[in-house]
Write a structure and sequence with these properties.
Blueprint (H helix, E strand, L loop, with lengths): L3 H5 L1 E4 L6 H10 L9 E5 L1 H10 L3 E7 L3 H7 L8 E5 L1 H7 L8 E6 L5 H4 L5 E6 L4 H13 L4 E5 L8 H7 L8 E5 L2 H10 L3 E5 L16 E6 L7 H6 L2 E3 L12 H16 L14
Helix pairs in contact: 2-5, 7-8, 7-11
Length: 285
């Protein structure tokens, strides 16, 4: 016997490749939606389940014939009157954004966060300035959620955390962690964080300080620069401290995701009381 939710669902079969819903799904899953279409395309059972559990408004589900088994696992989470669009495996593959589609995708309303959502009683923010690889951006979002950051800010020069590759690399974290995407230029973000009394640390290859010598247990923001150019000079020079991760001489640098994860881990270690930096240590200005 079908569940009450399934009984109230709106089901429709899509047979034409020119169907408007298939066109919208293709655009959403490839990150090509119109600017006015504030939807996020999610593909695969895990991401769809994460979106449903996060309470994001659901516009429609797209299910292929072979994806019906995935739909069965999600039915208990579906809101009443969910629009379920069914199609063939061939047509689903034609709109999918992955090489081996699972046969289920969703269009949800993109989460929108305000500044205050990122500022807990003792905020720990990650700020990306020029991180252009979407895989790195998604991995940083995932580490930020896993290691206790209160939020992430992606300046305009960085890849969109809500782009398809970044969403997949985040493994669903971008649906839960407060994220400000396409934020203003780095200097404007820096000034706003200073106005809100956050200590700002710049990760650089030539930093004078090591992570464990900085007090990351206080309200602070960790700035991560691009894979090649690093942070803008004006941000690195104005930060409360420039920090570097000690590396063996043969290794020139870490990628942005690895560096961010190490700094987040150290911040979590200090915040859990395992190694707070001495309050008497003066910081470079």
């Amino acid at each position: 016997m079908p569940s009450p939710v399934a009984a109230r669902a709106k089901s429709e079969r899509l047979e034409s490749p020119h169907n408007r819903w298939l066109k919208r799904f293709r655009a959403a899953l490839h990150g090509e939606s119109d600017a006015g279409d504030a939807v996020l395309g999610l593909e695969g059972a895990k991401l769809v389940m994460d979106a449903l559990r996060s309470g994001l408004p659901l516009e429609a589900l797209l299910v292929s014939d072979s994806g019906e088994r995935q739909l069965a696992k999600l039915k208990s989470l579906l809101p009443a009157a969910t629009r379920i669009l069914r199609t063939s495996d061939r047509l689903f593959s034609s709109v999918a954004g992955t090489e081996t589609p699972q046969g289920i995708a969703a269009m949800v309303h993109r989460p929108e966060w305000m500044w205050d959502a990122l500022l807990s009683s003792q905020p720990l923010l990650i700020v990306l300035a020029g991180v252009q690889d979407p895989g790195n951006v998604g991995a940083i979002v995932r580490s930020a959620e896993a290691l206790g950051a209160s939020g992430l800010i992606a300046c305009r020069s960085s890849s969109d955390p809500f782009g398809p590759k970044a969403v997949r690399a985040s493994a669903g974290s971008v649906l839960r962690l407060p994220v400000l995407a396409e934020s203003p230029a780095p200097q404007a973000v820096f000034d706003e964080l200073r106005r809100r009394a956050l200590h700002q640390y710049a990760a650089t290859l030539s930093g004078e300080r090591l992570p464990h010598s900085c007090d990351l247990s206080r309200s602070c923001a960790l700035w991560i620069g691009g894979e090649g150019a690093g942070l803008p000079v004006e941000i690195a020079s104005a930060a409360d401290a420039r920090i570097r991760i000690p590396l063996r001489p043969a290794v020139e640098s870490l990628n942005a995701a690895a560096a961010a994860t190490i700094l987040l881990y150290e911040a979590g270690r200090q915040r859990n009381g395992a190694g707070r930096a001495p309050a008497s240590v003066e910081e470079h200005r």
